[in-house]
Design a protein that fits this description.
Number of helices: 6
Oligomer: single chain
Structural class: mainly alpha
Helix content: 55-70%
Radius of gyration: 16 Å
Order of helices and strands: HEHHEEHHH
Length: 146
């Protein structure tokens, strides 16, 4: 199940399934070469991580974010980053980011924020931001503008 989880999470992170797309367990199981049971378990796990949504009668789908939800997420991201920087165990490294795309560089930036945060929960939350940046292409927007 862990391999299926890591693979599906990576596919979501890469944007293979765009927002609003229905995630059919049978098709994903076929793509991954596994049975449907671990895929369903993985989809439920990803619902818990808010990377996938489940609706009664409609199955699983990739979340489609509205403007208000994006504003809330930007505000949350800003608060987490400021908290991580205020409580940092070590200085923030400001050397050049090596990612090929803006999304990849933004994800690296969030990973650096997570590395210096002393609190495990802050690190985990910021790590999820790195995934969200690449998946939804948020990196091209300015967090401070909201």
């Amino acid at each position: 199940m862990e391999r299926s989880y890591a693979t599906l999470k990576q596919l979501l992170r890469e944007g293979r399934y765009p927002p609003g797309v229905r995630l059919e367990a049978s098709r994903i199981a076929e793509e991954l070469g596994v049975s449907m049971t671990p895929v369903r378990d993985v989809l439920h796990r990803l619902v818990g991580e808010r990377l996938v949504e489940a609706s009664a009668g409609e199955g699983f789908h990739v979340p489609r974010l509205r403007e208000a939800a994006l504003r809330d997420l930007y505000e949350w991201h800003s608060a987490l980053i400021l908290m991580a920087l205020r409580t940092a165990r070590s200085p923030f490294a400001q050397d050049e980011l090596a990612g090929e795309t803006m999304a990849a560089r933004t994800a690296q930036l969030f990973e650096r924020f997570a590395d210096i945060a002393p609190n495990r929960e802050i690190r985990a939350a910021i790590g999820m931001l790195a995934i969200a940046c690449t998946r939804f292409g948020w990196s091209s927007r300015k967090f401070s503008s909201l």
